[in-house]
């Protein structure tokens, strides 16, 4: 692959190089300020940005370049730890920034992007759309019509891609009319998290797990993604979406895919994504009779977080007081194939839980014949605990003999623990966006979601949403600061199991 400068000189580039022009739409928005600029800054600090890479901020607001740089600096001071905000790196980073004010929906003004690209060497351009999905199509069209793109340009889009299968197809069609699939990067930031990546290493590099990872050895799988925060001033967006669309359709289903997929032939993007799609296609659909038993929808009421009173969902700013949108969902589902037949996957996610906690627990089956104290029988199985946040780590719970002369052959359960922060103390765990941005710059797609993944995930969710609509039942209330409606505990105890809460 080659790049050209304006006088036609060839310049080598391609996968692996981070020498690009990045055009960030929505550069003054919350995501850009809170996550994207800090992530780009960390890449700068670690020497991972090519010296020639340029960053163009695009926003509707009327800023000049100096005002824009000041605003980015302010965001970095807020969201990057003071000891990491090194002066030289900061100066280098701010000097890369350019700014263009633009009304994204109107074609006028896009030629300024083409002109910006033409200053100096033509590099591949990454277009990052941190804006509402309904204008993705307009932006792509105007970029193309203005001659701002070439055959190497890539586009990055954020979730939510649509509200259901039909709306997501419409958005994907609009992007696809300009960019081929091989140059579309759909973000699910969970795929950039260190431990999520580690799932691939853990499963496919360790023969120990390779042979055990199926229904012969695993009794059930549990995934909890709990957030302490409420909806953080996003009532308008959230009330349209709800927890199923906001968290399950993307993040939790991606975790299910990485746990349940068959080994890919290699680490190529399509080899991995082909296997994930097979899992999504095999997800069990919900039938009406399963709804009352295997799915719980909840909505938080006023309660207490960290000792402070917090309002209920219906009392949040801008709330519509009779909303029935769910802020919590728990469900029992499964993957209908040979590897996973009969293995329940219990998923649970909610806002205003007692703590921020994302973890996956693989529960292994008990020994076929048990020889220890009968009253300890319930202890006797292994669990693999994969903690995504707050402290990333992996623990394998094993049984050993309790020590002491008076203990006989009493068993004790304890973790073989790999806490990343203490095992690798000098390694800073990068934020998901750092890794994702770096992969886009290098042109590597394996951490991004392919169109058919999004669509199969929507299909499965749409089926559940339609079944809920038929039932027309209000969500169950739970106090903020609790683990959700008690019905979610009943859902799992009906199978003689409980949610795993101590790590
Ligand atoms: C986003 C959701 O995708 O993920 C938010 O829209 C949610 O509602 C967030 O708070 C959670 O991400 P993380 O990385 O904090 O678990």
UniProtKB/TrEMBL annotation:
It comes from the Bacteria. GO terms for cellular component: cytosol. NADP(+) binds at residues 60, 103-104, 159. Keywords: Carbohydrate metabolism, Glucose metabolism, NADP, Oxidoreductase. Residues 24-198 form the Glucose-6-phosphate dehydrogenase NAD-binding domain. Belongs to the glucose-6-phosphate dehydrogenase family. This is Glucose-6-phosphate 1-dehydrogenase. It comes from Halomonas lysinitropha.
């Amino acid at each position: 692959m080659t790049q050209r400068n304006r006088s036609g000189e060839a310049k080598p580039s391609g996968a692996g190089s981070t020498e690009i022009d990045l055009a960030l739409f929505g550069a003054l928005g919350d995501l850009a300020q809170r996550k994207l600029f800090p992530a780009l800054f960390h890449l700068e600090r670690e020497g991972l940005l090519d010296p020639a890479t340029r960053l163009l901020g695009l926003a509707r607001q009327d800023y000049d370049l100096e005002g824009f740089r000041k605003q980015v600096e302010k965001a970095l001071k807020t969201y990057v730890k003071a000891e990491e905000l090194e002066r030289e790196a900061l100066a280098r980073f701010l000097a890369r920034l350019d700014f263009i004010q633009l009304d994204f929906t109107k074609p006028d003004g896009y030629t300024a992007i083409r002109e910006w690209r033409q200053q100096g060497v033509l590099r591949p351009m990454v277009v990052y759309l941190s804006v509402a999905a309904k204008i993705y199509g307009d932006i792509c069209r105007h970029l193309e019509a203005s001659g701002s793109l070439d055959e190497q340009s890539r586009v990055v889009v954020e979730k939510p891609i649509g509200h259901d299968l039909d709306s997501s197809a419409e958005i994907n069609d609009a992007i696809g009319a300009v960019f081929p699939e091989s140059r579309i990067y759909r973000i699910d930031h969970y795929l950039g998290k260190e431990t999520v990546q580690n799932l691939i290493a853990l499963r496919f590099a360790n023969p120990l797990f390779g042979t055990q990872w199926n229904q012969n050895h695993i009794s059930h799988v549990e995934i909890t993604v709990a957030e302490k925060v409420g909806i953080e001033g996003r009532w308008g967006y959230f009330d349209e979406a709800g927890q199923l669309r906001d968290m399950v359709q993307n993040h939790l289903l991606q975790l299910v895919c990485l746990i349940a997929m068959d080994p890919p032939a290699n680490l190529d993007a399509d080899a991995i994504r082909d296997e994930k799609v097979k899992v999504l296609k095999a997800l069990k659909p919900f039938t009406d009779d399963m709804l009352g038993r295997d799915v719980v929808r909840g909505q938080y009421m006023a309660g207490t977080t960290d000792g402070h009173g917090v309002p209920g969902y219906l009392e949040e700013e801008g709330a519509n007081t009779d909303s029935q949108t769910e802020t919590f969902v728990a469900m029992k589902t499964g993957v209908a194939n040979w590897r996973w037949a009969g293995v329940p996957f219990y998923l649970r996610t909610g806002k205003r839980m007692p703590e921020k906690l994302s973890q996956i627990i693989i529960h292994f089956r008990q020994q076929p014949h048990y020889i220890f104290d009968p009253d300890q029988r319930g202890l006797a199985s292994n669990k693999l605990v994969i903690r995504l946040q707050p402290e990333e780590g992996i623990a394998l719970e094993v049984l050993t003999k309790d020590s002491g002369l008076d203990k006989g052959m009493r068993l004790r359960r304890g973790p073989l623990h790999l806490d990343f922060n203490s095992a690798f103390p000098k390694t800073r765990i990068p934020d998901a966006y750092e890794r994702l941005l770096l992969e886009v710059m290098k042109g590597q797609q394996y951490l991004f979601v392919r169109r058919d993944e999004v669509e199969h995930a929507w299909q499965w969710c749409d089926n559940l949403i339609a079944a809920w609509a038929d039932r027309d039942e209000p969500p169950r209330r739970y106090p903020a600061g609790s683990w959700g409606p008690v019905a979610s505990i009943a859902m799992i105890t009906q199978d003689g199991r409980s949610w795993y809460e101590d790590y």
